[in-house]
Specification:
binds magnesium ion, Dna Ligase, domain 1, D-amino Acid Aminotransferase, Chain A, domain 1, binds adenosine-5'-diphosphate, alpha+beta, globular
């Protein structure tokens, strides 16, 4: 499906959010680096998807009413063979949901230098705004994030990255490699453009984005659509 169709379909179904699979298809179609993923409904399809993607894999339950997947046990990492796929598939299917269940089979992305968070939201006065921070505990406890009103230039993106307190983590702290800031700048700029171009989108939440010495990878994404209340 093309990127605009993914959104149109969700709007036509009166949905307020895209699933992780749909959000990453949408972003991937726009040229952004997302984890390789395939959506399946049976164990047999899960096994053949894993063969295509290559072990180890990640399995996640996709259902429209499951938002925080880890909280309900819907994320299973580092699955190494067919028998693990089959038992994990059964476990995932036991998780309660009022909507249709699918399983997303994904490549297991290698350990990054750090996990990042990139998001967009609507500023009541200025419209789309973008935020950036280091993922995980630092975001929640330290509130160590930077914001800009969209659209942003590459210069703005570079400033956003440098102004967080934890910038050192990206800059080769204690002998660890320097992160690929060029790839990160380009991601921030593209996410800003998407928030300006797709008026149906209310908020985006890319959490985490893995960053490496070379390249980045969007591992989880959530896209919230505007409803009649949030549409001005
Ligand atoms: P949640 O809905 O709980 O945010 P995520 O999809 O973000 O679920 O998965 C939880 C965590 O599992 C991520 O923060 C990341 O550390 C890890 N993870 C998820 N998917 C992958 C993947 N494809 N490769 C490697 N690690 C992953
Ligand atoms: Mg997440």
């Amino acid at each position: 499906m093309k990127q605009s169709e993914i959104i149109q379909q969700a709007v036509a179904q009166n949905r307020t959010a895209l699933t992780e699979y749909e959000a990453k298809e949408f972003l991937g179609n726009l040229g952004l680096p997302v984890t390789e993923q395939m959506l399946v409904e049976t164990k047999e399809a899960a096994v053949s998807a894993a063969k295509k993607i290559g072990y180890p894999i990640v399995m996640k339950l996709m259902a429209e009413d499951i938002v925080h997947k880890t909280d309900v046990g819907a994320v299973k990492l580092d699955i190494k063979n067919e028998s693990e796929i089959k038992s994990t598939f059964n476990e995932l299917m036991k998780i309660p949901s009022q909507t249709k269940k699918h399983v997303s089979i994904q490549e297991m992305a290698p350990k990054p230098i750090t996990e990042l968070i990139v998001g967009t939201l609507q500023d009541p006065q200025f419209g789309p705004a973008i935020m950036f921070g280091i993922g995980g505990i630092l975001v929640e406890i330290m509130k160590d994030v930077s914001f800009r009103i969209c659209p942003i230039t590459e210069f703005d993106a570079d400033e956003m990255i440098h102004e967080i307190k934890a910038f050192k983590i990206l800059d080769g702290f204690r002998g660890s490699p320097k992160a690929d800031l060029k790839a990160l700048i380009s991601l921030l700029k593209t996410i800003s453009e998407i928030s300006m171009d797709y008026l149906e989108i209310d908020q985006m939440d890319l959490n985490p984005v893995f960053i490496y010495e070379k390249g980045i990878k969007i591992v989880d994404a959530r896209i919230i659509l505007k409803t009649s209340e949030t549409k001005e």
